[in-house]
Amino acid sequence: MATSSLSCSVCDLRHISSPSAVWCTECDEGLCDSCQEHHSLSKASRNHTVIPITEYYKLPSDVVKISQFCDKHNEKLSIYCKMHECPCCINCIVESHNKCQQLLKIEDVINNVISTIAFFEIEQTLKEVAENIEKIRVDRQNNLKTLPETRQQIEKEIKKIPNSHQ
Question: How far apart are CA 10 and CA 99, in angstroms?
Answer without folding.
Answer: 39
